[in-house]
Automatic annotation (TrEMBL):
Coiled coil: none annotated. Residues 206-375 form the Glycosyl transferase family domain. The keyword Transferase applies. Gene3D superfamilies: Glycogen Phosphorylase B. GO terms for biological process: lipopolysaccharide biosynthetic process. One of its GO terms (molecular function) is glycosyltransferase activity. It comes from Leptolyngbya foveolarum. Keywords: Transferase. It comes from the Bacteria. The lineage of its organism: Bacteria, Bacillati, Cyanobacteriota, Cyanophyceae, Leptolyngbyales. This is Glycosyltransferase WbuB. Residues 17-190 form the Glycosyltransferase subfamily 4-like N-terminal domain. It holds the Pfam family Glyco_transf_4.
Length: 398
């Protein structure tokens, strides 16, 4: 059984990755049950079916996280977690192992409770690390009783888990620093992208590029969440330096910093930005290839706390990637190994702008870097490859 608040038709990247994982496990003759919420993060439709059933996959959606839509993500996440507990009590014995995500962050506690009272082994899938993120964002002090209690609970959850999956080497280092005794059961499994669905295509043959006037300018694409864990300031400063060039910055998605970035762009009277809302999943192969360069960012202090999944679809699209991140981020090594772009320290807008300008004047280099990234993804980060790694971890937990 998989517990996750987000699952398609919700646009949240974590849910879309879980959907792809479920499909791959089903193809390997694994029966999977998913308990999730109705769309609530970013979506175009109303409610999804309460129950969906295929040969080996059953998806059940709860409305719990929609009961108080205006009360915030934390409360809605808590309501979902409470509903998940009741569901687990009724269904848990039908499953051999529980995969619990950090969507919402405190969901792994349910795995601990299920193991304690029902004896079911569980695997923690850590997308991000709380309360560390809240501490870095200065939402709560590290010495605050809530933060200390949360850290204590995390350690108990990790110790009792059968296995732990993290998305990067940086995140593993953070966890081991908190709880050295769990190091041996931590597996690093990257996110992935479907290279059969997302394929390189020329902008002049791309309906999305034509619809949004993206064919002629050199397009730098930021696709996905612009949240508090992301650095949009360095992006904005680089765009300011390039305001007189034929370069367009396209931001697709939402997040806490989206309106702040729009406000800064308007105040600076910049004309080299275009903002679009989240797109349907079916449009992703076209929106990603309506660009010439993809941009990914991680805010200062967030190395090891978050792992942006948007880098993998960018690789599949065959586009170069520029990453704004701290110097100790795993992304520096990943891009260097894949040979698909370049990384820049936070606040280094000058070098980022120079890189963008150089690529805009060297189309052959753009193709070379993009092709290198796609080849690396095809050899390391496809759904088939990554799902086999997940299956090994889940089998080891039983």
């Amino acid at each position: 059984m998989i517990l996750t608040q987000f699952f398609p038709p919700d646009f949240a990247a974590t849910g879309q990755l879980i959907e792809e994982l479920v499909k791959q496990l089903e193809q390997q003759n694994v029966a999977v049950s998913v308990f999730t919420g109705q769309p609530g993060y970013a979506f175009a439709e109303g409610d999804a079916p309460k129950i969906e059933q295929s040969e080996r996959v059953r998806v059940m959606r709860s409305r719990a996280s929609q009961l108080m839509p205006k009360k915030g993500k934390a409360l809605n996440g808590l309501l979902f977690a409470i509903r998940a507990v009741f569901h687990l009590m009724m269904q848990a014995r039908q499953h051999q192992v529980l995969l619990v995500t950090t969507a919402p962050p405190f969901l792994p506690v349910i795995g601990y409770v299920a193991n304690l009272f029902l004896g079911i082994p569980y695997v923690c899938l850590l997308y991000d690390l709380y309360p560390d993120i809240a501490i870095e964002l200065d939402i709560v002090k590290a010495t605050h009783p809530i933060a200390q209690l949360w850290q204590f609970v995390n350690k108990q959850v990790w110790k009792r888990s059968a296995q732990i999956i993290v998305l990067s080497s940086s995140m593993k280092e953070r966890i081991v620093a908190h709880c050295p005794e769990v190091e041996a059961k931590i597996s690093i499994i990257h996110s992935w992208s479907n290279a059969e669905q997302i394929v390189p295509r020329e902008k002049q043959d791309n309906w999305f590029a034509k619809a949004h006037d993206l064919v002629d300018p050199f397009v730098v694409l930021y696709s996905g969440n612009m949240g508090r864990c992301h650095d949009v300031d360095t992006l904005f400063e680089a765009a300011q330096l390039l305001k007189d060039e034929s370069i367009l910055f396209v931001c697709i998605g939402g997040g806490a910093k989206r309106h702040l970035l729009i406000e800064k762009v308007q105040n600076a009277a910049l004309r080299n930005f275009k903002f679009l809302p989240y797109q349907e999943k079916s449009a992703l192969p076209y929106s990603l290839t309506a660009s010439d360069l993809s941009l990914v960012s991680v805010a200062p202090g967030m190395a090891g706390l978050v792992a942006p999944s948007k880098i993998y679809p960018a690789m599949a699209a065959g586009r170069p990637i520029s990453v704004i991140c701290p110097p100790n981020s795993y992304l520096n090594e990943l891009l260097a190994t894949a040979g698909c772009g370049s990384t820049f320290d936070n606040d280094n807008a000058g070098d980022l702008a120079d890189f963008i300008l150089e690529l805009s004047q060297d189309r052959e280099r753009v193709k070379r870097l993009g092709s290198s990234g796609r080849r690396y993804l095809e050899g390391h980060f496809t759904p088939k490859i990554v799902s086999q790694e997940y299956l090994k971890v889940l089998q080891a937990a039983v």
